[in-house]
Amino acid sequence: GAGVSQTPSNKVTEKGKYVELRCDPISGHTALYWYRQSLGQGPEFLIYFQGTGAADDSGLPNDRFFAVRPEGSVSTLKIQRTERGDSAVYLCASSRTSGIPDTQYFGPGTRLTVL
Amino acid sequence: DQQVKQNSPSLSVQEGRISILNCDYTNSMFDYFLWYKKYPAEGPTFLISISSIKDKNEDGRFTVFLNKSAKHLSLHIVPSQPGDSAVYFCAASAQGSGTYKYIFGTGTRLKVLA
Fold first, then answer.
1. Any bridge partners for residue A12, and if so which?
2. CA B35: distance to chain centroid?
3. pLDDT by 10-residue block (mean), chain A, 115 residues
4. Closest Cα to residue A93, out of A29, A17, A42?
5. In chain A, which residues have their Cβ closer than 8 Å to the Cβ of B51?
6. Of A33, A105, A108, the CB nearest to B42
7. Number of domains in chain A
């Protein structure tokens, strides 16, 4: 398909474990975003990549969260020492560029459950 | 501090009538606004957007209105159809300031009754 894809669609883990969430952006999109959505809330920004570099990581809640995009395409969000409060849907979005205006297209999300 | 607010958590409308969803914001630096529709177990789907240099943008049955002085935008759906039943999120960003992240509201659940 031509849209943003995310794997896995669901991830259940135990408190204290390490998880990796993957995002494949739309082909040719240079900007990639991670958001987190908790129940009853709107998506909350985590981090944004322009190419390979993190242009804005102001939304990462603490140093247990880290994301990479080594070749400027696929991105991986990494969460260390998971906590129950990390349970949420993690959404990835991509856009053609960070030019003005810039519309983000979202993937289906990864539902993370920390037991 | 919630910069983007959707004060109506839910809305029910009869099929064929107009649906009006509202959104308020506080940050005067926001210059690009969007509406997304979300079905259960899917990611948000882009619906329509508007730049702050305009006050109206139309796409088929969907129209977004922006009132900058009131810091208010609304989404009109005419006529409403049962397939429009979903959660609608408004989002805003301050792209002219070099900030490309979106700030989302908490969503309004629209139910269109057949």
1. A113
2. 4
3. 91 98 95 95 95 92 95 96 97 84 92 97
4. A29
5. 101
6. A108
7. 1
